[in-house]
Design a protein that fits this description.
globular; mainly alpha; 14 helices
Protein backbone atom coordinates (compact mmCIF):
# COMPACT_ATOMS: atom_id res chain seq x y z
CA UNK A 1 0.00 0.00 0.00
CA UNK A 2 1.44 3.36 -1.02
CA UNK A 3 1.49 6.40 1.20
CA UNK A 4 -1.32 8.21 -0.63
CA UNK A 5 -3.73 5.31 -0.18
CA UNK A 6 -2.79 4.93 3.49
CA UNK A 7 -3.49 8.63 4.09
CA UNK A 8 -6.81 8.41 2.25
CA UNK A 9 -7.90 5.39 4.30
CA UNK A 10 -7.03 7.25 7.50
CA UNK A 11 -9.00 10.31 6.33
CA UNK A 12 -11.97 8.13 5.33
CA UNK A 13 -12.02 6.44 8.75
CA UNK A 14 -11.83 9.79 10.52
CA UNK A 15 -14.69 11.17 8.41
CA UNK A 16 -16.68 8.01 9.07
CA UNK A 17 -16.33 8.49 12.80
CA UNK A 18 -17.20 12.21 12.63
CA UNK A 19 -19.91 12.07 9.95
CA UNK A 20 -22.95 12.00 12.30
CA UNK A 21 -21.68 15.23 13.87
CA UNK A 22 -21.03 16.87 10.49
CA UNK A 23 -24.28 15.93 8.71
CA UNK A 24 -27.59 17.75 9.32
CA UNK A 25 -28.97 14.78 11.24
CA UNK A 26 -27.73 11.33 12.26
CA UNK A 27 -30.13 9.27 10.13
CA UNK A 28 -28.79 11.00 7.01
CA UNK A 29 -25.26 9.95 7.93
CA UNK A 30 -26.47 6.36 8.33
CA UNK A 31 -28.15 6.50 4.91
CA UNK A 32 -24.86 7.65 3.38
CA UNK A 33 -23.12 4.59 4.84
CA UNK A 34 -25.78 2.17 3.61
CA UNK A 35 -25.66 3.45 0.05
CA UNK A 36 -21.86 3.65 0.09
CA UNK A 37 -21.79 -0.10 0.77
CA UNK A 38 -24.46 -0.68 -1.88
CA UNK A 39 -22.51 1.35 -4.46
CA UNK A 40 -19.21 -0.41 -3.72
CA UNK A 41 -20.92 -3.81 -4.04
CA UNK A 42 -22.48 -2.68 -7.32
CA UNK A 43 -19.12 -1.47 -8.61
CA UNK A 44 -17.74 -5.00 -8.21
CA UNK A 45 -20.19 -6.03 -10.94
CA UNK A 46 -20.12 -2.89 -13.11
CA UNK A 47 -16.68 -1.38 -12.65
CA UNK A 48 -14.55 -4.48 -12.17
CA UNK A 49 -16.45 -7.23 -14.02
CA UNK A 50 -17.89 -4.95 -16.71
CA UNK A 51 -21.48 -6.15 -16.28
CA UNK A 52 -24.22 -3.51 -16.41
CA UNK A 53 -26.80 -5.15 -14.17
CA UNK A 54 -30.22 -3.74 -13.37
CA UNK A 55 -31.01 -6.60 -11.04
CA UNK A 56 -29.20 -5.38 -7.93
CA UNK A 57 -32.39 -3.83 -6.53
CA UNK A 58 -33.72 -7.39 -6.21
CA UNK A 59 -30.86 -8.31 -3.84
CA UNK A 60 -31.13 -5.05 -1.92
CA UNK A 61 -34.87 -5.57 -1.47
CA UNK A 62 -34.57 -9.29 -0.68
CA UNK A 63 -32.03 -8.49 2.02
CA UNK A 64 -34.31 -5.77 3.36
CA UNK A 65 -37.45 -7.90 3.45
CA UNK A 66 -35.64 -10.93 4.88
CA UNK A 67 -34.24 -8.92 7.78
CA UNK A 68 -37.66 -7.37 8.41
CA UNK A 69 -39.50 -10.70 8.34
CA UNK A 70 -36.94 -12.40 10.60
CA UNK A 71 -37.08 -9.62 13.20
CA UNK A 72 -40.87 -9.41 13.12
CA UNK A 73 -41.73 -13.12 13.10
CA UNK A 74 -38.77 -15.40 13.78
CA UNK A 75 -36.00 -13.96 15.96
CA UNK A 76 -35.09 -10.87 17.94
CA UNK A 77 -31.40 -11.24 17.05
CA UNK A 78 -30.20 -8.51 14.70
CA UNK A 79 -27.09 -10.49 13.79
CA UNK A 80 -29.10 -13.58 12.80
CA UNK A 81 -31.47 -11.39 10.78
CA UNK A 82 -28.61 -9.70 8.92
CA UNK A 83 -26.96 -13.05 8.20
CA UNK A 84 -30.26 -14.39 6.88
CA UNK A 85 -30.63 -11.33 4.66
CA UNK A 86 -27.13 -11.73 3.22
CA UNK A 87 -27.54 -15.47 2.60
CA UNK A 88 -30.98 -15.08 1.00
CA UNK A 89 -29.75 -12.28 -1.27
CA UNK A 90 -26.66 -14.25 -2.32
CA UNK A 91 -28.75 -17.34 -3.10
CA UNK A 92 -31.04 -15.17 -5.23
CA UNK A 93 -27.94 -13.73 -6.94
CA UNK A 94 -26.69 -17.26 -7.63
CA UNK A 95 -29.97 -18.34 -9.23
CA UNK A 96 -30.48 -15.14 -11.24
CA UNK A 97 -26.81 -14.95 -12.17
CA UNK A 98 -26.76 -18.55 -13.39
CA UNK A 99 -29.68 -17.74 -15.70
CA UNK A 100 -28.19 -14.44 -16.94
CA UNK A 101 -24.43 -14.76 -16.94
CA UNK A 102 -24.09 -16.27 -20.41
CA UNK A 103 -25.76 -13.23 -21.96
CA UNK A 104 -23.69 -10.30 -23.17
CA UNK A 105 -24.12 -6.54 -23.29
CA UNK A 106 -27.64 -5.16 -23.44
CA UNK A 107 -29.11 -8.67 -23.34
CA UNK A 108 -27.55 -9.27 -19.91
CA UNK A 109 -28.87 -5.91 -18.71
CA UNK A 110 -32.41 -6.62 -19.91
CA UNK A 111 -32.54 -10.13 -18.43
CA UNK A 112 -31.38 -8.90 -15.01
CA UNK A 113 -33.97 -6.12 -15.19
CA UNK A 114 -36.68 -8.67 -16.03
CA UNK A 115 -35.81 -10.83 -13.02
CA UNK A 116 -35.73 -7.79 -10.72
CA UNK A 117 -39.16 -6.67 -11.89
CA UNK A 118 -40.52 -10.19 -11.47
CA UNK A 119 -39.40 -10.23 -7.83
CA UNK A 120 -40.88 -6.74 -7.38
CA UNK A 121 -44.30 -7.92 -8.57
CA UNK A 122 -44.12 -11.08 -6.42
CA UNK A 123 -43.54 -8.85 -3.37
CA UNK A 124 -46.35 -6.55 -4.52
CA UNK A 125 -48.85 -9.42 -4.79
CA UNK A 126 -47.73 -11.47 -1.76
CA UNK A 127 -49.18 -8.96 0.70
CA UNK A 128 -49.61 -11.49 3.53
CA UNK A 129 -45.83 -11.82 3.73
CA UNK A 130 -44.50 -8.51 2.46
CA UNK A 131 -47.29 -6.02 3.18
CA UNK A 132 -47.85 -5.45 -0.53
CA UNK A 133 -47.70 -1.85 -1.71
CA UNK A 134 -47.50 -0.61 1.89
CA UNK A 135 -44.27 -2.44 2.57
CA UNK A 136 -43.29 -4.17 5.79
CA UNK A 137 -43.90 -1.81 8.71
CA UNK A 138 -42.96 -1.93 12.37
CA UNK A 139 -39.56 -3.61 12.04
CA UNK A 140 -38.02 -3.42 15.54
CA UNK A 141 -34.51 -2.40 16.50
CA UNK A 142 -33.55 -4.87 19.23
CA UNK A 143 -30.54 -4.30 21.42
CA UNK A 144 -27.26 -5.96 20.50
CA UNK A 145 -25.67 -6.89 23.79
CA UNK A 146 -25.68 -3.64 25.72
CA UNK A 147 -26.01 -1.47 22.59
CA UNK A 148 -29.47 0.05 22.18
CA UNK A 149 -30.11 0.47 18.45
CA UNK A 150 -33.11 2.69 19.16
CA UNK A 151 -30.52 5.45 19.52
CA UNK A 152 -29.74 6.93 16.07
CA UNK A 153 -26.12 7.50 17.08
CA UNK A 154 -25.67 3.92 18.30
CA UNK A 155 -27.28 2.64 15.10
CA UNK A 156 -24.92 4.77 13.01
CA UNK A 157 -21.81 3.24 14.57
CA UNK A 158 -23.36 -0.24 14.37
CA UNK A 159 -23.87 0.31 10.62
CA UNK A 160 -20.37 1.79 10.31
CA UNK A 161 -18.79 -1.43 11.64
CA UNK A 162 -20.59 -3.56 9.04
CA UNK A 163 -19.84 -1.11 6.23
CA UNK A 164 -16.12 -1.14 7.08
CA UNK A 165 -16.13 -4.95 7.16
CA UNK A 166 -18.06 -5.17 3.89
CA UNK A 167 -15.87 -2.71 1.99
CA UNK A 168 -12.71 -4.33 3.40
CA UNK A 169 -13.81 -7.76 2.14
CA UNK A 170 -14.66 -6.34 -1.29
CA UNK A 171 -11.23 -4.66 -1.34
CA UNK A 172 -9.62 -8.04 -0.66
CA UNK A 173 -11.62 -9.56 -3.53
CA UNK A 174 -10.64 -6.76 -5.90
CA UNK A 175 -6.94 -7.15 -5.09
CA UNK A 176 -7.03 -10.96 -5.22
CA UNK A 177 -6.42 -13.12 -8.32
CA UNK A 178 -10.20 -13.17 -8.75
CA UNK A 179 -10.26 -9.38 -8.97
CA UNK A 180 -7.43 -9.34 -11.51
CA UNK A 181 -9.25 -11.99 -13.57
CA UNK A 182 -12.44 -9.91 -13.52
CA UNK A 183 -10.58 -6.88 -14.80
CA UNK A 184 -9.01 -8.95 -17.58
CA UNK A 185 -12.47 -10.21 -18.56
CA UNK A 186 -13.83 -6.66 -18.50
CA UNK A 187 -11.09 -5.44 -20.86
CA UNK A 188 -11.34 -8.31 -23.35
CA UNK A 189 -13.64 -11.23 -22.68
CA UNK A 190 -12.62 -13.22 -25.77
CA UNK A 191 -8.92 -12.92 -25.00
CA UNK A 192 -9.53 -13.99 -21.40
CA UNK A 193 -11.36 -17.08 -22.65
CA UNK A 194 -8.58 -17.85 -25.11
CA UNK A 195 -5.94 -17.99 -22.36
CA UNK A 196 -8.00 -20.37 -20.25
CA UNK A 197 -10.15 -18.24 -17.91
CA UNK A 198 -13.55 -19.72 -17.05
CA UNK A 199 -15.28 -16.43 -17.81
CA UNK A 200 -18.80 -17.45 -16.80
CA UNK A 201 -17.61 -18.84 -13.46
CA UNK A 202 -15.68 -15.69 -12.57
CA UNK A 203 -18.58 -13.46 -13.58
CA UNK A 204 -20.99 -15.55 -11.53
CA UNK A 205 -18.70 -15.38 -8.48
CA UNK A 206 -18.60 -11.58 -8.76
CA UNK A 207 -22.38 -11.49 -9.11
CA UNK A 208 -22.92 -13.62 -5.98
CA UNK A 209 -20.38 -11.70 -3.86
CA UNK A 210 -22.00 -8.44 -4.94
CA UNK A 211 -25.43 -9.89 -4.11
CA UNK A 212 -24.25 -10.88 -0.61
CA UNK A 213 -23.09 -7.37 0.30
CA UNK A 214 -26.00 -5.72 -1.48
CA UNK A 215 -28.27 -7.84 0.75
CA UNK A 216 -26.30 -6.61 3.77
CA UNK A 217 -26.87 -3.01 2.66
CA UNK A 218 -30.59 -3.74 2.30
CA UNK A 219 -30.73 -5.25 5.78
CA UNK A 220 -29.00 -2.24 7.31
CA UNK A 221 -31.40 0.02 5.41
CA UNK A 222 -34.36 -1.70 7.08
CA UNK A 223 -32.85 -1.19 10.52
CA UNK A 224 -32.42 2.48 9.70
CA UNK A 225 -35.94 3.00 8.34
CA UNK A 226 -37.72 0.51 10.64
CA UNK A 227 -39.64 -0.75 7.63
CA UNK A 228 -38.99 -2.40 4.27
CA UNK A 229 -40.49 -0.30 1.45
CA UNK A 230 -41.66 -1.97 -1.74
CA UNK A 231 -39.62 0.62 -3.65
CA UNK A 232 -36.44 -1.06 -2.37
CA UNK A 233 -37.12 -3.78 -4.98
CA UNK A 234 -37.85 -1.42 -7.85
CA UNK A 235 -35.34 -1.00 -10.68
CA UNK A 236 -34.78 2.68 -9.84
CA UNK A 237 -32.98 1.56 -6.68
CA UNK A 238 -30.37 -0.05 -8.92
CA UNK A 239 -30.31 3.17 -10.91
CA UNK A 240 -29.36 5.12 -7.79
CA UNK A 241 -26.40 2.82 -7.15
CA UNK A 242 -25.35 3.10 -10.80
CA UNK A 243 -25.46 6.91 -10.67
CA UNK A 244 -23.36 6.93 -7.48
CA UNK A 245 -20.82 4.55 -8.98
CA UNK A 246 -20.47 6.37 -12.29
CA UNK A 247 -20.40 9.81 -10.65
CA UNK A 248 -17.68 8.78 -8.21
CA UNK A 249 -15.69 6.68 -10.65
CA UNK A 250 -16.14 3.10 -11.82
CA UNK A 251 -13.51 0.47 -11.20
CA UNK A 252 -12.31 2.04 -7.97
CA UNK A 253 -13.19 1.43 -4.34
CA UNK A 254 -13.18 5.07 -3.31
CA UNK A 255 -15.23 6.32 -6.28
CA UNK A 256 -18.58 4.75 -5.31
CA UNK A 257 -18.11 5.97 -1.73
CA UNK A 258 -17.52 9.54 -2.93
CA UNK A 259 -20.50 9.23 -5.26
CA UNK A 260 -22.77 7.99 -2.46
CA UNK A 261 -21.75 10.79 -0.10
CA UNK A 262 -22.21 13.43 -2.78
CA UNK A 263 -25.54 12.16 -4.13
CA UNK A 264 -27.20 11.53 -0.75
CA UNK A 265 -26.11 14.82 0.81
CA UNK A 266 -26.93 16.93 -2.27
CA UNK A 267 -30.30 15.22 -2.65
CA UNK A 268 -31.17 16.08 0.94
CA UNK A 269 -30.04 19.71 0.59
CA UNK A 270 -31.67 20.35 -2.80
CA UNK A 271 -34.95 18.56 -1.98
CA UNK A 272 -35.35 20.81 1.07
CA UNK A 273 -35.57 23.84 -1.24
CA UNK A 274 -37.35 22.60 -4.36
CA UNK A 275 -39.55 19.77 -5.59
CA UNK A 276 -37.53 19.78 -8.82
CA UNK A 277 -34.48 18.29 -7.14
CA UNK A 278 -34.45 15.36 -9.60
CA UNK A 279 -33.79 17.83 -12.43
CA UNK A 280 -30.75 19.28 -10.69
CA UNK A 281 -29.41 15.83 -9.80
CA UNK A 282 -29.86 14.74 -13.41
CA UNK A 283 -28.01 17.77 -14.73
CA UNK A 284 -25.16 17.15 -12.31
CA UNK A 285 -24.93 13.52 -13.41
CA UNK A 286 -24.86 14.53 -17.08
CA UNK A 287 -22.12 17.08 -16.38
CA UNK A 288 -19.96 14.44 -14.68
CA UNK A 289 -20.51 11.83 -17.42
CA UNK A 290 -19.85 14.27 -20.27
CA UNK A 291 -17.07 16.28 -18.63
CA UNK A 292 -15.22 13.72 -16.53
CA UNK A 293 -15.31 10.29 -18.12
CA UNK A 294 -13.57 8.75 -15.12
CA UNK A 295 -15.92 10.38 -12.63
CA UNK A 296 -14.72 12.42 -9.67
CA UNK A 297 -11.86 10.00 -9.01
CA UNK A 298 -10.72 10.35 -12.62
CA UNK A 299 -10.72 14.13 -12.20
CA UNK A 300 -8.62 13.88 -9.03
CA UNK A 301 -6.18 11.58 -10.79
CA UNK A 302 -5.81 13.86 -13.80
CA UNK A 303 -5.70 17.25 -12.08
CA UNK A 304 -4.06 16.45 -8.75
CA UNK A 305 -2.07 13.40 -9.86
CA UNK A 306 -3.37 11.36 -6.95
CA UNK A 307 -2.85 7.60 -7.05
CA UNK A 308 -6.31 6.49 -5.91
Amino acid sequence: MNRTKAVMIAIALALGILLPYLSPYEALASEVLVFALFAVAYDLVLGYAGMLSFGQAAFFGIGAYTVGIVLLRLSSSVLIALLAGCVTASVAALLIGYACIRSRGIYFTMVTLAFAQMIYFIAFKWSSLTGGSDGLHGVPRPTVGSVDLASELNLYYFILVFVIIGISVIALVVNSPLGKALQAIRENRDRAESIGYNVNMFRLLAFVISGFFTGLAGGLFVLLQSFAPLSSLYWTTTGEAAVMTITGGMGTLVGPIIGAVLIILLRDIISAHTEMWNLFMGLMFMAVVLGFRGGIVGLLRDKLKLDI
